[in-house]
């Protein structure tokens, strides 16, 4: 079959590609009889539009002939046809590897057919997405049926609890499809969002190896994910994402209906309502699945008209916009401005608002909802028509992008060949014509989205009268004397220095290499920025700090647009940089954090631990569990963003020091929990679950201990984390995976993985610097200890200073049962009887040794120079004094080791009258004062320990006096 004449008619930039693709399939075409010209035209459309199809036809040379013989390229499948075709392939298989292969061969065959029909427009957009969803349904359901039968042979059939008559009923898994799968709107290379659940708790009916239903269905779910998601030589079936389940990745893989209902009733969040609009049972027990959705409907659709949905969706869109800017996704047809997501938000806003009152709006498919809006909410028919046309165009564009390589992307190409391919697949002569049409559709979507979700606030068009003069000064277009006079009048007492800073930026290499568009964006905001800086008391220092940031973002000028479009963010930037040099350095290193300045409601009200946990879970939902690099960047961004919020509240006085430490400690705990969860899941996927005498360990019996500032709930902005890892497993057993490890090695690798995720340097820096030297035997000891080994070491080998450190140790994340066991060990160690004289000698000796090596080298016995931490009368003296008294009296007073923070321990010492009320209050106030001063130094990018401040002399003297009273007695 000759394609020469057809190729000659193609756009010139596509002809070489067409020749290459035809040549790759030459043997396929030679085996086929002469075909009509119309087929050649269709074939070229597909070959130009899809490397994936070319690869599949080349690897499986009978595929094209088989498709033509079956007529599959010309017709839409009937309902249930995918399931029948797949069942024929796998029904007689016994080997799991062969089963996996047949799933993938089937999927690839059908994807060739679907891409062919989509690119040749033999199937319209709506039919394509319906068929793709039907293909996914069939793969999930048939794979589940095959695996369920095998699982029941091995472990028995899951049964319900006996009813009042003692009768049990077999239980089957219910697979809920979320997102595009749930709405029958799957795209050509979509992942599938699933939730696994089952009707009732109970156990299997196996005579010898019965399992709890939850264990059975978790194992079955894991097998199903492997069957669909694992990448083999034959590819994958569908990428599976389970993070929309209750509690996200931290939750069990499968839960009962009861647990589902309780979760959504008690903890369901707004974004989960949004997600549940599209939920649909796609596999397993569909009847029970529909019953569950009936029970959950009140969570999704409120009985009253719920206008709060606008705010929820607006916040979700704002979060997406931040991701778009952070990752440079402006050319993403799904997430970018005027993209697919905005059309979905418009429809779902009205579903959430009025769906409880109007059952017609309780539908999953977007193209079924849009036509209802004129009647239901009065949206103009023309607007609905524009949205529907734009949606179909955007979905076709999405398919054209994904058809090329079967990759999950919605990014428009930036290379000439890629652009030519997309334009051709979309039926346009060239990229320019396609881009113009795409731009019109995106503008229409953005306009309607703004009308519905995010009304545009009219801006004040009054021009700043001084703007022109500011630009003259910056560009050096007026005499220096005039510029200095202008700067002085505006509020720069150090006008010469200010002028130099502006001149340095103008002449900098960064500025010289800046593209014109970035320069114009800078000029848009510069006059207002300088006007605001001039009003600061420390205007010249503020100018230096802000210009540091400006220079850092010149090559990523979207951030300048952010400041131009959000005057409030610009105002906060100036205010906070004026107050803190540390703050300006943080923003210069991480300009993406400018997004966090937009909303003062969240900027100055950092969330509590529960909200931190929920927000982090939500942000991690859309990150592939295999993408470690993206995970680490997301964790670091989350940390930086929330540290910035805490600092903003700190700088402005909205939070006292103790609350600042609380928030920073909560943040570390939430991040540690996420890191441990990811590390555990990654190792389990590779090596299986550690085994116990009762079976596989489905949750990690592992805890992370925080010592020092983390343990004492006293974290500051630059604090490292002192950690110790403890596990509880039988070292003589191993994991149950194909690449099995002994439990001891598994947990050691778990600790290594946690450290790797925490302290690896990425473009955003480290998450935290980690110090493991407080583990048993220090750097020479095992990275992860068993609880028994930890206890034995503390009882038999630990030095007194290690028992001092244990006072400030607490479990910050991990298994609750093991945490309780650790608390008992800690109590036993701290409450041991001790010889007071010997204890006093050891504590004082250690303190003197530290002071000799760590205190300030200048005249440390005067009040002129004072190391807040290490000098006599400083923070460490207070800590050692407190620790001595706890170890000396814990045998008698258990309340002394209840808490790990110094303030509450001082309260306890006062409560049992070991310290007088006056001594305790003096030490509390001195401790808080020293920490506050060090904290303030840190925010100003100064040394946070050595100071020259005579005001602290009285506190230092008081601490020395109490030390002498207590530690020399």
Computed Rg: 33 Å
Compute the average pLDDT.
Answer: 88
Uncertain runs are: 455-464, 858-863
CATH class of the largest domain: Alpha Beta
Secondary structure tally, helices: 44
Question: What's the helical proportion of residues?
Answer: 55-70%
Domain PII-uridylyltransferase/Glutamine-synthetase adenylyltransferase: 314-452, 846-940
Keywords: ATP-binding, Ligase, Magnesium, Multifunctional enzyme, Nucleotide-binding, Nucleotidyltransferase, Transferase
GO molecular function: [glutamate-ammonia-ligase] adenylyltransferase activity; [glutamine synthetase]-adenylyl-L-tyrosine phosphorylase activity; ATP binding; ligase activity; magnesium ion binding
Catalytic activity: [glutamine synthetase]-L-tyrosine + ATP = [glutamine synthetase]-O(4)-(5'-adenylyl)-L-tyrosine + diphosphate; [glutamine synthetase]-O(4)-(5'-adenylyl)-L-tyrosine + phosphate = [glutamine synthetase]-L-tyrosine + ADP
Description:
- The structure is a single chain.
- This protein is mainly α and 969 residues long.
- It folds into five domains: 50-300, Beta Polymerase, domain 2 (2-Layer Sandwich); 308-452, Nucleotidyltransferases  domain 2 (Four Helix Bundle (Hemerythrin (Met), subunit A), Up-down Bundle); 467-591, Four Helix Bundle (Hemerythrin (Met), subunit A) (Up-down Bundle), CATH 1.20.120.1510; 609-830, 2-Layer Sandwich (Beta Polymerase, domain 2); 836-967, Nucleotidyltransferases  domain 2 (Four Helix Bundle (Hemerythrin (Met), subunit A)).
- The chain contains 44 helices and 14 strands.
- The strands form four sheets. Strands 1, 2, 3, 4 and 5 form a five-stranded mixed sheet that branches. Strands 8, 9, 10, 11 and 12 form a five-stranded mixed sheet that branches.
- Strand 9, helix 36 (743-759) and strand 10 form a beta-alpha-beta unit.
- Helix 16 (340-354) runs parallel beside helix 21.
- Residues 455-464 and 858-863 have low confidence and may be disordered.
- One of its GO terms (molecular function) is [glutamine synthetase]-adenylyl-L-tyrosine phosphorylase activity.
- Keywords: ATP-binding, Ligase, Magnesium, Multifunctional enzyme, Nucleotide-binding, Nucleotidyltransferase, Transferase.
- Belongs to the GlnE family.
- This is Bifunctional glutamine synthetase adenylyltransferase/adenylyl-removing enzyme.
- It catalyses: [glutamine synthetase]-L-tyrosine + ATP = [glutamine synthetase]-O(4)-(5'-adenylyl)-L-tyrosine + diphosphate; [glutamine synthetase]-O(4)-(5'-adenylyl)-L-tyrosine + phosphate = [glutamine synthetase]-L-tyrosine + ADP.
């Amino acid at each position: 079959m000759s394609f020469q004449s057809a190729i000659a008619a193609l756009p010139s930039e596509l002809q070489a590609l067409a020749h290459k693709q035809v040549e790759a399939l030459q043997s396929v075409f030679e085996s086929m009889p002469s075909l009509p010209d119309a087929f050649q035209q269709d074939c070229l459309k597909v070959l130009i539009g899809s490397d994936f199809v070319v690869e599949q036809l080349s690897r499986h040379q009978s595929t094209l002939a088989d498709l033509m013989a079956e007529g599959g390229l010309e017709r839409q499948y009937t309902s249930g046809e995918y399931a029948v075709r797949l069942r024929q392939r796998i029904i007689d298989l016994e080997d799991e590897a062969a089963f996996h292969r047949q799933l993938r061969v089937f999927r690839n065959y059908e994807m060739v057919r679907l891409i062919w029909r989509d690119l040749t427009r033999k199937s319209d957009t709506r039919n394509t997405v319906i068929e793709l969803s039907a293909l996914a349904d069939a793969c999930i359901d048939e794979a589940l049926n095959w695996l369920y039968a095998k699982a029941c042979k091995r472990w028995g059939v899951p049964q319900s609890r006996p009813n009042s008559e003692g009768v049990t009923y077999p239980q089957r898994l219910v697979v809920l499809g979320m997102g595009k799968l749930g709405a029958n709107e799957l795209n050509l290379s979509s992942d599938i969002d699933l939730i696994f659940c089952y009707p009732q708790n109970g156990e299997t009916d196996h005579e010898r190896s019965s399992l709890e239903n939850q264990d059975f269905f978790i194992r079955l779910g894991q097998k199903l994910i492997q069957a669909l998601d694992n990448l083999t030589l034959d590819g994958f079936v569908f990428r599976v994402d389970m993070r929309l389940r209750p509690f996200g990745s931290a939750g069990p893989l499968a839960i009962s209906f009861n647990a589902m209902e309780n979760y959504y009733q008690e903890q369901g969040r707004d974004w989960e309502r949004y997600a549940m609009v599209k939920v649909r049972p796609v596999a397993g027990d569909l009847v029970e699945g529909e019953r569950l959705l009936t029970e959950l409907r009140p969570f999704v659709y409120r009985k009253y008209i719920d206008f709060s949905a606008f705010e929820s969706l607006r916040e979700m869109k704002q979060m997406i916009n931040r991701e778009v800017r952070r990752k440079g996704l402006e050319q993403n047809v799904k997430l970018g401005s005027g993209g697919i997501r905005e059309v979905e938000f418009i429809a779902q806003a009205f579903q959430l608002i009025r769906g409880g009152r109007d059952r017609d709006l309780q539908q999953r498919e977007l193209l079924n909802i849009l036509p209802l809006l004129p009647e239901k909410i009065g949206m103009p028919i023309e607007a609905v028509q524009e949205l529907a046309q734009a949606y179909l165009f955007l979905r076709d564009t999405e398919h054209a992008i994904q058809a090329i390589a079967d990759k999950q992307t919605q990014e428009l190409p930036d290379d000439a060949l890629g652009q030519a391919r997309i334009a051709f697949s979309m039926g346009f002569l060239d990229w320019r014509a396609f881009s113009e049409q795409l731009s019109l559709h995106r503008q229409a979507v953005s306009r309607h989205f703004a009308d519905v979700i995010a009304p545009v606030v009219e801006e004040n068009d009054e021009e700043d009268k001084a703007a022109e003069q500011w630009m003259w000064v910056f560009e050096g277009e007026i005499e220096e004397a005039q510029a200095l006079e202008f700067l002085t009048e505006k509020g720069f007492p150090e006008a010469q220095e200010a002028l130099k800073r502006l001149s340095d930026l103008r002449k900098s290499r960064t500025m010289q290499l800046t593209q014109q568009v970035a320069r114009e964006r800078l000029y848009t905001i510069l006059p207002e920025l300088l006007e605001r800086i001039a009003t600061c008391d420390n205007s010249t220092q503020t100018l230096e700090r802000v210009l540091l940031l400006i220079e850092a973002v010149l090559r990523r000028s979207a951030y300048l647009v952010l400041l131009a479009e959000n005057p409030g963010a610009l105002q906060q930037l100036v205010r906070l940089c004026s107050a803190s040099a540390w703050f300006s350095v943080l923003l210069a290193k991480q300009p993406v954090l400018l997004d966090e300045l937009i909303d003062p409601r969240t900027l100055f009200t950092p969330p509590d631990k529960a909200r931190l946990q929920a927000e982090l879970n939500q942000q991690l939902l859309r990150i592939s569990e295999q993408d470690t690099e993206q995970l680490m960047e997301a964790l670091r961004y989350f940390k930086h963003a929330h540290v910035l919020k805490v600092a903003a509240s700190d700088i402005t006085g909205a939070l006292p020091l103790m609350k600042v430490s609380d928030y920073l400690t909560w943040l570390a705990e939430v991040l540690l929990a996420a890191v441990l969860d990811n590390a555990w899941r990654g190792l389990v996927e590779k090596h299986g679950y550690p085994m116990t005498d009762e079976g596989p360990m489905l949750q990690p019996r592992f805890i992370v201990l925080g010592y020092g500032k983390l343990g004492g709930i006293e974290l500051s902005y630059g604090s490292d984390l002192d950690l110790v890892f403890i596990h509880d497993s039988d070292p003589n057993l191993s994991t149950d995976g194909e690449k099995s490890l002994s439990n001891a090695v598994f947990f050691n690798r778990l600790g290594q993985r946690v450290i790797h995720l925490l302290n690896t340097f990425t473009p955003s820096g480290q998450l935290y610097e980690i110090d493991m030297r407080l583990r048993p035997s220090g750097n020479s000891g095992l990275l992860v200890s068993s609880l028994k080994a930890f206890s034995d070491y503390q009882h038999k080998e630990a030095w007194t200073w290690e028992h001092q450190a244990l006072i400030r140790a607490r479990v910050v994340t991990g298994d609750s049962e093991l945490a309780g066991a650790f608390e008992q060990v800690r109590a036993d160690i701290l409450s041991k009887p001790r010889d007071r004289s010997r204890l006093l000698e050891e504590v004082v000796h250690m303190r003197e040794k530290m002071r000799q090596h760590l205190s300030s080298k200048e005249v440390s016995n005067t009040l002129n120079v004072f190391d807040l931490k290490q000098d006599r009368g400083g923070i460490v003296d207070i800590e050692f004094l407190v620790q001595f008294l706890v170890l000396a009296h814990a045998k008698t007073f258990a309340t002394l080791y209840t808490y790990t923070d110094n303030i509450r321990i001082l309260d306890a010492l006062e409560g049992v009258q070991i310290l007088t009320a006056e001594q305790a209050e003096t030490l509390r106030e001195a401790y808080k004062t020293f920490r506050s001063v060090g904290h303030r130094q840190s925010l100003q990018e100064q040394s946070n320990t050595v100071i020259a401040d005579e005001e602290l002399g009285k506190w230092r003297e008081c601490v020395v006096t109490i030390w002498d009273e207590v530690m020399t007695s």
